[in-house]
TrEMBL record:
PANTHER family with a match to the protein in the record: ALPHA AMYLASE DOMAIN-CONTAINING PROTEIN, GRANULE-BOUND STARCH SYNTHASE 1, CHLOROPLASTIC/AMYLOPLASTIC
Transmembrane spans: none
Described purpose of this protein according to its UniProt entry: Synthesizes alpha-1,4-glucan chains using ADP-glucose.
Reactions mediated catalytically: [(1->4)-alpha-D-glucosyl](n) + ADP-alpha-D-glucose = [(1->4)-alpha-D-glucosyl](n+1) + ADP + H(+)
The protein's name in its UniProt record: Glycogen synthase
UniProt organism field: Bradyrhizobium betae
Lineage: Bacteria, Pseudomonadati, Pseudomonadota, Alphaproteobacteria, Hyphomicrobiales
Gene this protein is translated from: glgA
Pathway membership, UniProt: Glycan biosynthesis; glycogen biosynthesis
Cellular component terms per the entry's GO annotation: cytosol
Residue ranges of every copy of the Starch synthase catalytic domain listed in the record: 5-238
Residues that coordinate or bind ADP-alpha-D-glucose: K18
GO biological process: glycogen biosynthetic process
């Protein structure tokens, strides 16, 4: 097996920094790739949490002026992850979320902050670190989108490049004036390069110049080639269809393992599903819900947004109450949705529980104690919560989009092999109809148990998905090798 060296470039990596599924992928993929002969090191910004956690960091480069202030490139590790850290305090030494101010507004210099990350990624690609010269630079989302562009404009020999889209909705759009200040040639500001509706887009840069483009499910790879799903990039992706593929995400089955999970009340496996009732009781207590094993408990772990379809779920609450179901929701996001869910909880004590925010430990308990997990997204590149639900015996109820379509087998399509429920179109009426169907199935104990056992038997690990990435890297290297 030919060894491969890959530099991954990501703005967040679990368990160090996480705001969404990108971090989970960036954190789990390197370890999974080792079995496929791929050595991956991940480049990330030196946020305060990163600087506190990276052990044995070695300074391998220092700049007196890096994008407006002193900076260093460090090599270190954390929990088995091999890391390069771009330590530039004037860009990254800031409180809270990597992308927004404490008031929830984008940092005004985000363009510079993530151009700096892409620039050093390109430099590592060119051999900045002699001990690790990558065969492939793998950029994740818009924050790393300029890495393939820098490598393109630098000219000369370079590694292969891969761009992975985790969500088309986030495009890294900035004013055209940024071009010169981040070291890109002015001729890059045209419609065939970086220009995007009068400004520039870091995501477009990656899509335009990466040798290969991936996204996180086969169905989403098709959806983003449409005008609606492409969100402005449908035409570009149709033109690059030969370079585009969808590779499903996996989850870290060491972290998400109900038999060893330290965050749940009672551990269990496929032969011990009766212990889920004890987790359900603790979950009901946490959310101040009535204690009842006969009331189906619907769990939600989500960003509260239009994309996630959480406004549609709100419309079904009268039906949820009428059907005798309970709802436990953990999430944050749009202020209006937060307020409306909290109002629903106040109006229906014991039936609806809402906690605004995010708590990793509580997320594990929701997976272990909910009877069903709802993911009603209008679009969903892959989704990870439904994969965790399969692993924990929480039956997924999902919309027929993106990775949700690819990862759940609907009870109406293959009764004996079904793992959950899918609904479409993505509307409140379709969701309500499917929730009623799930409620009826829940009271058929043998049918519900079969759904749970099928889910537990589903391979949601990175094992095969990592092999797909390894094949992609090797095929790219072979295609770029001189004849």
């Amino acid at each position: 097996m030919m060894p491969v060296r890959v530099l991954a470039v990501a703005s967040e990596v679990y368990p160090i920094v996480k705001t969404g599924g990108l971090a989970d992928v960036a954190g789990a993929l390197p370890s999974a790739l080792k079995a496929h002969g791929v050595e991956m090191r991940t480049l990330m910004p030196g946020y305060p949490d990163v600087m506190r956690r990276v052990s044995g960091a070695e300074e391998i480069r220092h700049w007196p002026d890096y994008f407006g202030g002193p900076g260093r490139l460090l090599a270190g590790s954390h929990e088995g992850l091999d890391l390069f850290v771009l330590d530039v305090p004037h860009l990254y030494a800031r409180p809270g979320n990597p992308y927004v101010t404490p008031e929830g507004l984008d940092w005004p210099d985000n363009g510079v902050r993530f151009a700096a990350l892409s620039r050093v990624a390109a430099d590592i690609g060119h051999g900045l670190v002699p001990a690790f010269v990558p065969d492939v630079v793998h950029a994740h989302d818009w924050q790393a989108g300029l890495a393939p562009a820098y490598l393109h404009y630098d000219g000369g020999a370079r590694p292969g490049t891969v761009m992975t889209i985790h969500n088309m909705a986030y495009q890294g759009k900035f004013a055209s004036e940024l071009v010169g200040s981040i070291g890109l040639p002015w001729h890059s500001f045209n419609v065939n390069d970086l220009e995007y509706f009068g400004g520039i887009s870091f995501l477009k840069a990656g899509l335009q110049f990466a040798d290969r483009i991936t996204t996180v499910s086969p169905t989403y790879a098709q959806e983003i080639q449409t005008d609606e799903g492409g969100m402005g990039f449908g035409g570009l992706l149709r033109a690059r269809a030969d370079a585009l593929s969808g590779i499903l995400n996996g989850i870290d089955i060491e972290v998400w393992n109900p038999q060893t999970d330290p965050h749940i009340a009672y551990r269990f496996g496929a032969d011990e599903l009766t212990f889920r009732a004890a987790n359900k009781a603790v979950l009901q207590q946490q959310f101040n819900l009535d204690s009842s094993d006969e009331a189906p408990l619907l769990g939600v772990i989500s960003r509260l947004s239009w994309q996630k379809g959480l406004d549609l779920l709100l419309e079904t609450i009268p039906m949820i109450l009428e059907q005798g179901m309970q709802l436990a929701l953990l999430g944050s996001g749009d202020r209006d949705l937060q307020d409306r869910y909290q109002a629903a909880a106040r109006a229906n004590p014991g039936r609806i529980g809402v906690l605004i925010g995010y708590d990793e430990i509580l997320a594990h308990l929701i997976q272990a104690g909910s009877d069903a997990l709802i993911v009603p997204s209008r679009f969903e590149p892959c989704g990870l919560t439904q994969l965790c639900a399969l692993r924990y015996g929480a039956v997924p109820i999902v919309s027929r989009v993106g990775g949700l379509e690819d990862t759940i087998v609907d009870i109406g399509e293959a009764d004996r092999d079904a793992t959950g429920f899918k609904f479409g179109p993505v509307s409140a009426d379709a969701l309500a109809w499917t929730l009623r169907k799930a409620n009826t199935t829940f009271h058929n104990k043998s049918a519900w148990r079969r759904l749970q056992l099928n889910g537990l038997a589903t391979d949601v690990s990175w094992r095969n998905r990592a092999g797909d990435y390894a094949t992609l890297y090797r095929n790219l290297m072979a295609a770029r090798r001189p004849a």
